[in-house]
Design a protein that fits this description.
alpha+beta; 16 strands; elongated; Rossmann fold; 419 residues; BirA Bifunctional Protein, domain 2
Length: 419
């Protein structure tokens, strides 16, 4: 039987892995400059964690979760998103006591059973941020600013922040009724299951990609018409902060996000390079989530960014990412040099220079072919002559120009050339 990767998954091969490494390294280095620390949570959690955080009517819970019973009969779920596990870890380990602020970041796979398409997988990957403990609009602005800077550092040019506010409990209650009232003529002709979901959470309709639903909601008033005074002030202040940070954005009342835990600020970053599938990432504020999961009331804001989608935009925009190259292939010009070749290979590696050698006793000509195939910048050749003079012949594989160096000069010279 010939085995294949499961539908909706992919192997990241060496020819592409360096792009992933560059993205993850860029993200980690950027967010650490803002004081974020990494958190790693398990791949599976109690199913109830995601039901409580995302909401029973969300597509994630109702359609997409990979849920199973373990051998102890416990209902577990492969994590479909990174925020709820991070908040669970914060509560369990008391990472953000009342009065403190915690900044966390993660790089994680997520699992959602959905129809695979370009840039969308059943096992996907995200990088994300959680700023926990601050109710200030400055925290929202920081998350959005970092998100935009990240895409800029990746060389992605055509991005736009779409910004909205969902207000607090009073606003959401009044707006839910307004949306439901507007949608009732459409819902009368829909199946009972769809009507029941809409009655339970009408804001889900705003997040629908169904053309019929979108048509039915035309003319529905924006949520910003229902904002409480304090939420209006916060939203205005957030926009001023983004202006000060020179972050380009547009207020978009259509942005509501697909999870129940969002309050006040919500945003998406979109790319004009993705066509109809324009969303790169999304995030917002979720001040009630930690309390919903059993912790103390704790304001929080964050973002989750899809790795596959960012890589897809890089490719669409022709962003070049330097592929790592092997530094040196150490070549033995005869059997007598075997020990010296092993010693030089180890010496180069100990000094931070990537190096390979042949293990199979090939001829010098074959070794040089291997060196060329490996992509090595240089070949370091040792034979009887080099052994007698304590030298190494260094060949530039691109130009075939070679020169003799004393053994104690090889590391400094290679570092100079490879830098």
């Amino acid at each position: 039987m010939k085995y294949k990767a499961q539908r909706g998954t992919q192997d990241v091969l060496p020819s592409a892995a360096y792009r992933w490494q560059n993205l993850e390294r860029t993200f980690s280095e950027l967010v650490q400059r803002y004081g974020y620390q990494e958190i790693r949570t398990p791949l599976f959690e109690d199913t109830e964690l995601f039901v409580r955080s995302s909401g029973e009517t969300s597509d994630i819970v109702s359609k997409q979760m990979y849920t199973f019973l373990d051998k102890g009969g416990r209902s577990l779920t492969l994590k479909p998103e990174g925020t709820a596990p991070a908040m669970r870890a914060v509560i369990e380990n008391n990472l953000c006591p009342p009065g403190s602020v915690q900044r966390l970041y993660y790089i994680t796979p997520i699992f959602r059973y959905e129809r695979p398409q370009k840039g969308r997988y059943r096992q996907a990957h995200q990088v994300g941020l959680e700023l926990i403990g601050s109710p200030s609009p400055m925290a929202d602005a920081e998350i959005i600013e970092i998100t935009v800077r990240f895409y800029e550092l990746l060389g992605i040019r055509n991005v736009q922040v779409l910004l909205n506010s969902l207000g607090r409990a009073e606003c959401r209650a009044r707006y839910r009724e307004a949306v439901l009232s507007h949608a009732r003529p459409f819902l009368k002709s829909q199946p009972e299951e769809i009507r029941a979901k809409a009655e339970k959470n009408p804001l889900r309709l705003l997040d629908s990609k169904d053309p019929e639903v979108q048509e039915a909601l035309k003319g529905c008033p924006p949520v910003t018409d229902y904002l409480e005074d304090e939420s209006k002030r916060r939203f205005d202040e957030l926009q001023r902060l983004l202006d000060d940070a020179k972050v380009c954005y547009a207020v978009s009342p259509d942005i509501v996000r697909g999870l129940d835990y969002y309050t006040e600020t919500v945003f998406e970053v979109q790319s004009t390079s993705l066509g109809a599938q324009s969303a790169l990432c999304g995030g917002g504020r979720y001040d009630g989530l930690i309390a919903e999961l059993g912790g103390p009331p704790t304001p929080s804001v964050g973002v989750a960014m899809g790795i596959e989608r960012a890589l897809m935009v890089q490719e669409a925009e022709g962003v070049e990412v330097g592929e790592p190259r092997l530094g040196v292939f150490v070549v033995s010009a005869g059997p007598s040099a075997a020990k010296s070749v092993r010693a030089l290979t180890s010496y180069l590696r100990d000094n931070g220079i990537s190096a390979l050698q042949d293990y199979d006793g090939r001829s010098m000509k074959s070794q040089l072919k291997l060196a060329d195939k490996s992509g090595a910048r240089f070949a370091a050749i040792i034979g009887d002559e080099e052994l007698a003079s304590d030298t190494v012949t260094l060949r530039d594989m691109a130009s075939s120009v070679q020169r003799s160096l004393m053994r104690n000069e090889i590391v400094s010279e290679l570092k100079r050339c490879l830098s």
